[in-house]
Amino acid sequence: MENWVASIIESLGYFGVAFLMFVENLFPPIPSEVIMPLAGYISAKGQLSIVLVIIAGTFGSVLGAIFWYFVARWLGAERLRRWARRHGRWITLGTSDIDKAEHWFKRHGVSVVFFGRLVPTIRTVVAIPAGLFGMKLGHYLLFTALGSVIWTGALALIGWWLGSKWTEIEAWMDPFTYVVMTAVLLIYLYRVVTFQSTEKKAEDRRATGRR
């Protein structure tokens, strides 16, 4: 996948970075932890501007977050849960994720949107309660953009910094990338396989009034 991601970025430039980060918010097995460091490394070679790479990555990430915001706002809580029960397995979005996001939002408010964008497993689902509870779009975009630019910027700068030392670290960088990708894939497969049992536990918690 690393070669595929790199080829898209090299052929499509900033649009490729934005596109991949948009897709990353919809399909978990394409992680930003691979996309943005690679984009940063490519910028270190002089093919792209690191500043524009960060802007493109942030733009794509925010677009993906907006998608889930409007999906949640349009569907509403119960319709979204019904959709998650039927189709959520393949994007690992279950009713338990919706319940947790709703609980965090009620407890911590808008700060969840900002800090949630900095946490890999929370980044996508944090958009859901914002949409469900009608958080003002302007506020949502502001906090989402701030959190996203920190996350994408940090990852891109890591790749940019490593780019100048690529010949020194290339021997262990490829195995490290494979380890990251394998871990992401295994977590994704685990969540797909255990989706039904997780949903059953979520239903039981709702039935007893617990989170």
Description:
The protein is mainly alpha-helical and 211 residues long. It has one domain. It contains eleven helices and no strands. The chain has helices spanning 2-12, 14-24, 32-44, 50-75, 77-87, 95-108, 111-116, 127-132, 137-163, 166-193, 195-208. The longest helix is centred in the C-terminal third of the chain and has 28 residues, at 166-193. The radius of gyration is 18 Å and the shape is globular. The model has no long low-confidence stretch (mean pLDDT 79).
Q: What is the share of helical residues?
A: over 70%
Strand content: under 5%
Mind telling me the C-alpha Rg? Answer: 18 Å
List unreliable stretches of 5+ residues. Answer: none
Order of helices and strands: HHHHHHHHHHH
Supply database-style keywords.
single chain, 211 residues, 11 helices
Topology readout:
Elements: H1 2-12, H2 14-24, H3 32-44, H4 50-75, H5 77-87, H6 95-108, H7 111-116, H8 127-132, H9 137-163, H10 166-193, H11 195-208
Helix pairs in contact: 1-2, 1-3, 2-3, 2-4, 3-4, 3-9, 4-5, 4-9
Could you give a quick summary of the protein structure above?
Helix content is 79%, strand content 0%. With 211 residues, it is mainly alpha-helical.
